[in-house]
Amino acid sequence: LGKRGFIGPLGDDLPSIFPIVTGVMLFITTMVFLNSQVAARSDLGELKRSALELSYITLDKGFYSKEDFDKKCVETLKPFAEKSRVDFIASLQKHCDSLQFTTNFKELYNPDFPLPGGSVCSDLSQTELDEVDLNESLRYSFPVSVECSLKRKGIGLVNILVWRSKG
Amino acid sequence: MKSRAQAAVIDGIMFLLVVVTSVTLVYSFYGNYGQAQDKTAYSAFVMNFMQATVKTLYYLDASTLSKVDAYSLQSGLNGPDCGQLQKYPGISVMELLKKDSTPVPLTGVNGDGNDIADLDNKFGKADAPGKLAMRCAMKELMKPFEFANFKYLVEIVNQQGSELPQRSLNDPSFDKISNDKDATTCEAIPQSSYVVSTPFLVMKKDVIDNDPDGNAFKFTMRFCVWQK
User: Considering the entire predicted model, what is its pTM?
Assistant: First the structure.
């Protein structure tokens, strides 16, 4: 009679196991989920930093000729992207009279697209770029001046798209 | 035995409460995580854009801005339109603005109180629509920010930071180089604004050859941007 209701040393603690297991599961799930979220945010922050640094070194001049831009691409932008483990497209567009922003970023690396005198620079080849989903890239556009007709310097645009390198 | 089982359940519930509390704390940390970094990245982008804009102005040919529709959109005031700039090929916006800013007559040196940056679209008696060119350029180059409800102001100040008297302020047909009618100076705008300053030396036309630094009006161009 003295042991009425006693179902063993473990059995008596059985009701407390449910909240404990629930708590442990909740804690582990939360930590795993947030760990991945924090890593994603940190990665995005790093990508933004790289994109802004790339923009900054691209815009050290207020005027670009096609030749200057191509030289900058080979000598500075590509080595920087490789070091920062990012891929990028930088394009120089000539507008001359007014700024025009594009929403079709696939056009930016189409060799036929840049308005005459413009230029496109990327660390990837045309074939590799075709496989990239540009919706995952960070995009920045900045004004510059470019050579226009009659040797006048008009409005141009530098577009920079940056994304995390898969390689 | 019954009370022992109850104690165990309470222990379990207490443990669950502790877990829920710590999970809430971790989530609140996550909510703020990266916000400061985002803010810094955004500021860096805005500053980078502003600096690119100012650098562009040093090269941008004023005549290429002749198709910009600035006045009607900026202030609703009637005034000369950007089409006038067609007559100024081969001169950059900044050069034209410097001509426009040249104090005439050339009295006073380096902020001694007599320097007056006219900004009346004239250089002496000749036309030099520097202010107009600047307005048209800013209207075009700041388009993306204007669409995002940003306001901007460009002003020429002396080295002490105070705004120079500008004759055009009293002229109803001219207003500031700004897309905000209420803007007065960069100092009067919200603290969360972005400001880019650049030395703005205006040469005295009769003493350019000798000691240009000492014989120039040492002004500063201030370009500020804020969200309203």
Answer: 0.83
